[in-house]
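@channel anyone free to eyeball this complex?
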Amino acid sequence: MSTEPASVPDPGYNFAYLNEQTKKMIRRALLKAIAIPGYQVPFASREMPMPYGWGTGGVQVTASILTPDDVLKVIDQGADDTTNAVSIRKFFRRTAGIATTSDTETATVIQTRHRIPEEPLSESQILVFQVPIPEPLRFLEPRETETRKMHAYEDYGLMHVKLYEDISQNGHIATTYAYPVRVEGRYVMDPSPTPKFDNPKMDNCEALQLFGAGREKRIYALPPYTRVVSLDFEDHPFEIQKWTEKCSLCGADDSFLDEVITDDKGGRMFVCSDTDFCSKRQIGRQEAAE
Amino acid sequence: MYVAVKGGEKAIDNAHRLLAETRRGDPEVPELSTEQIREQLTLAVDRVMTEGSLYDRSLASLAIKQARGDIIEAIFLVRACRTTLPRFGYSVPLDTGSMTITRRVSATYKDLPGGQVLGPTFDYTHRLLDHDLEHETEIEEAPVAEPVQGDMPHVLDLLCEEGLMEPPISPGDDPETEPGDITRDPLVFPVDRALRLQSLARGDEGYLLALGYSTQRGFGRNHPFAGEIRLGSVSVEFVPEELGFAIEIGEIDITECEMVTQFKGSKTTPPQFTRGYGLAFGSCERKAMSMAQVDRSLRAEELGEDRVAPAQDEEFVLSHCDNVQATGFVEHLKLPHYVDFQSELELVRRMRREQEETMRGAAE
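replying in thread with the prediction:
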């Protein structure tokens, strides 16, 4: 676990890079998104100094909500030290001079790609998701003009048919990540490519959850305590992944595990994808042993 | 033993240092100056300005140097710079009719008022490698004709007077409404022609070239003629709020292309010719021509033509024409996807297990 205190931001940039008008525009979109949970609000996404598809949506959302007192945590695949998470954290240290941390509990803003931390979040926290394709219906219907109508008419039959076909072919739903959810009984929403393991954490979450898709120019949100239900059928209820193994480092049997190949003879081990959760548990185990 | 992916920060720093060293190449060879790029790689500079949507030759040259000649990377650098610049307002529409012409050709008329001007073109050169260029060479001065000054009528306007050509503003567009701005508002389909043209103007040259080509090969055929291609400089005027009248703020070089396509007519419109429009910064002829072809094919719906080909599909063409967006999303596949992949691994293993069990059950 590491925390770096706030520093002086690069004077060449406005606080958190974006100019104030742009932030205001994004905050307006955020407010609308919060008012209509799960609805995708179009916004005038800007070109950022990192490539589209590398978190520009999340970065714009984070830049618009950051205050100088915030403590930022950035994770990618659950880890604080993956290269892109490091790069984004560095960007905000430079342009906003804010404090950063890997500790889930101390962070006030957490930007994430593909995971939700294992530790439960609180009301004083905001979780910002980087979203590549915000439209849950996109792979069923490629046209925006069509999917917009489907959302407007609450016409989600196509999605149910897709899930049903999965069951009839495989005996179960063959979607493992970006598993669609229904928000407050209204909009079907893409939870971003988080594993379905994380879907239950979105439901009734204490923290505000914001989703930014830069290239696709969409923002959506889940206000705290929103009802988020993973789509399923009565006779085929939603279930999350389970591992027969435990984490080799901390012994956790209830976290999302990454498989690590250790040799070329089929040797492998499983470790927590959430590095902060894992290292805290390792410290706990050490202390208990001593 | 498992080594965590620690040290990402140090690895990134070192990679960037190696990048800088690789960019420089052999230090024995003199360093390339941005002035050299600006003066001698002008077409690359013009493409970066066009697709970067920023008219600044020096910044474009710098971007090309920094990007090691990777044009899409250079365009990305320019766009990222552009997004930080304050916006003062919108210029007065350019009057391309009063352009100082460097090149002007029409494929529809042998001769026309103002004449044909070839200008600096690769056309009619034999594409033989010129080994003399391996060394510094003295360039013979090219003979200069009197610059063509003053108004040079657009070829398509000549047809317009006869009523054979549709007016420049299509009936669906209201000239009184302010055109939208794709850099300030997200594209929401369907979009009008102004927004389509803006998207195409910053669209990838190669992509538009392929789409334009596809219409010539029968995928949404629209039978174009290069009515006019002109290259030259045109003055930019701006109305400052405190003055209330237009002042000239500079000159820019542009390439403009107007394609002519036959139109069978409808119940309300007699048979006539229709337009496709292309515009680019500097000298970007291939881009302007392709853009004009694609603009015309995207008008299929407006003109009551069947929409059957990719080049006629507005959502398909416009959603994928921006190479900064495209390259980012394609290249993001390099980023770690351990978590999603782990989920898929688990699923495939489970499905294989289930299949084995079913087969075993059937065998018993």
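from a first look: Confidence is low (pLDDT under 50) at residues 1-5 of chain B.
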